Amino acid sequence: MTRPAATRIARRTLEDTRHQAIRLLERGLHPEAAAVAVGCGRSTVYGWWQAYQVGGLAALRVRKAPGARPKLTPRQQAQLRRWITGKDPRQLQFDVALWTRDLVRTLIAERFGVEMSAQGASNLLQRLGLSPERPLVRAYQQDPEWVRRWRAVELPRIRAATKAASGHIFFCDETGVRTDHHPGTSWGAGGQTPGVRGTGQRRALHMISAISTRGTLHFAVIEGQTTADSFIAFLHKLLHDIRGPIFVIVDGHPAHTASKTKAFVQTHPRLLGLCFLSPYSRS
Predict the structure, then answer these.
(1) Weakest mean pLDDT among 128-132, 245-249, 269-273
(2) d(CA 270, CA 167)
(3) Where are the beta strands (DSSP E) in 102-163?
(4) How many other β-carbons are positioned within 10 Å of the β-carbon of residue 280?
(5) pTM for the whole thing?
(6) pLDDT on residue 7
(7) Among 61, 91, 137, 254, which residue is least crowded by beta carbons within 10 Å?
(8) Partners of 217 in beta bridges
(9) Contact, 188 vs 156, CB < 8 A?
(10) How many CA atoms lie within 13 A of 98 on its CB side?
């Protein structure tokens, strides 16, 4: 008779299996029979029994699985941290001034020849004691209760409607940008706001931008201040670029509430919806 091949025991049940095998041996069952009963090899049961004789039940505990081997050496990790906390990316021949996760991945690939996933880079940055830092500014007119109600009631409603329609949520806003301004966050030492050196030469641009809940950014540079016409043109661009229904979350800017804008939205009832934030929530 051919003995059935042993199967690999899942780690989550391994300790219970070991205890079961030991109980069978203590009742007088032969190790080979115990191995068949618990579904493992005979030599494995012998090894458990020997360990139990020496160390008791503590010897049968399953150790925590080792994590993946770090892709960067301790020296490389220390060097990476010094670059992020002590250097402006432009000093390392990059075109932007803020340390983003993707920029860190590019730096690691260029300097160390190591490819790293976005999640792997985030985990590494957190292990190095770094975090994305950005100042928080709120308008004094903001009503905290209104904001709380919007988050608790309106936002879940928008999410449910988006999910039902297999659509996309975008947060949209307008801004005037100067060439010496650096929006967003930059990875740096936790609790310490990083500094960025500017230049005395300044130019101004105006644009409309929309970012999805997955981080996808769409924007358009416009001439002068935002109007209903320029906002409608941007919505038309979104409809062209995004497949499926779009729910655009906006504030109470006149371009958003204009009758011309409302008429445009009504011409795309299944593809476009405007959702309004509580007052001053963008500040």
Answers:
(1) 128-132
(2) 10
(3) 130-133
(4) 16
(5) 0.44
(6) 62
(7) 137
(8) 211
(9) no
(10) 15
